[in-house]
Amino acid sequence: MSALSQAIGDGFTLTKRNLLKNLRNPDIVVFSSAAPIAFALLFGFVFGSAITVHGSNYREFMIVGILTQTMLLTASNTGVGIAHDMRQGLVDRFRSLPIAPSAVLVGRTSGDAVNNLVVIVLMSLTGLLMGWRIRSSFLDAALAFLLLFLFAYAASWITAAIGLTAKSPEVVSNAMLMFLLPFTFISNSFVPSEGLPTVLRVIADWNPVSAVVEACRRLFGNIPPDRPVPEAWPLQYPVLSSFLWVTLILVIFVPLAIRRYQKAMSK
User: Fold this and answer.
1) Is there a contact between 245 and 208 (Cβ–Cβ < 8 Å)?
2) Within 10 Å of residue 226's Cβ, how many Cβ atoms?
3) Residue 176 in contact with residue 165, Cβ under 8 Å?
4) How many CB atoms lie within 10 A of CB 62?
5) How high is the pLDDT of residue 217?
6) Looking at residue 21, what is its pLDDT?
7) Which of 161, 146, 64 is nearest to 113 (CA)?
8) Are 59 and 132 spatial neighbours (Cβ–Cβ below 8 Å)?
9) Contact by Cβ (8 Å): 11, 106
10) What tens digit of pLDDT does each residue of 148-187 get?
């Protein structure tokens, strides 16, 4: 058996393990959705009453931002889970088994990716109940959901690398908060980036979260037809730039996380 086929087989086995583990702990999905739903209600019905968006309803404007933020929140479960496994000595058990080092991380990220699908469905239903609507074709909407899923999967590899570096799940949780807040709030998720100060606007326009949000808004048909064309290249071609961001994140953090896992196993 080649190394590649062994890694694929081991990854599939560990993905199944993580799925079964998550099925026995449905509260993971419940609590992963609870905070984003609270955010959606807070921004939509409290802050939304004081925010005006050109040519659009604010609840429809911000729901895609909530969906993207939720993908980052759920991706943090990967890092916390890996840090917990490290503390519980799971790495020591895997060290004694003839499995590919990458399979452990592939199994964790793939298992969590299935949870992300459930959370996407729950958050989309919440958005529909709040007045958000998909105004595009089925294929465009499907591409938007695929992009959200891939972005969450890529972000899970970032959190995996952090989880393998941190000494405890608590440290990972705090690190995720520091990572999440700037990426989601210095973006076009909740307010148009055009109104931000110059420095923050540049950061927001080149923020990968902004590209994903802009791409999904276009694919869902949530952008008013008379809205001016953005000046920044990532927002002019948001679908392309989003896929480029996803690819770049995977190219950097998949090898990085695997190397950190190998280093942890060698201790």
Assistant:
1) yes
2) 7
3) no
4) 27
5) 94
6) 67
7) 146
8) yes
9) yes
10) 999 999 999 998 888 888 767 777 777 777 777 788 889 9
In angstroms, the CA 216 to CA 225 distance is: 15
The residue among 32, 29, 243 whose CA lies nearest residue 146 is 243
Which region, left, alpha or beta, applies to residue 168 given φ > 0 means left and ψ of -120 to 50 means alpha? beta
Distance between CA atoms of 247 and 254, rounded to whole angstroms? 10
Residue 28's identity, in one-letter code, is I
The residues, any chain, with a CB within 8 Å of residue 221's CB and separated by 6 or more, are 134, 135, 136, 140
Residues in the chain: 267
Tell me how far CA of residue 57 lies from CA of 9, 47, 51, 129, 190, in angstroms: 48, 13, 10, 14, 12
Whole-model pTM: value is 0.87
CA dihedral sign, ordered 106, 206, 73, 89? positive
CA atoms in the 13 A half-sphere facing the CB of 121: 7
pLDDT tens for residues 29-47? Answer: 666 667 778 878 888 887 7
Are 147 and 71 in contact by the 8 Å Cβ rule? The answer is no
- Residue 220 near residue 213, CB atoms below 8 Å: no
Q: What backbone phi and psi angles, to 5 degrees, belong to 84?
A: -65, -45
Using the structure block, give the residue that is written with the tokens 């190394």.
Answer: 3
Tokens of 253: 């953090």
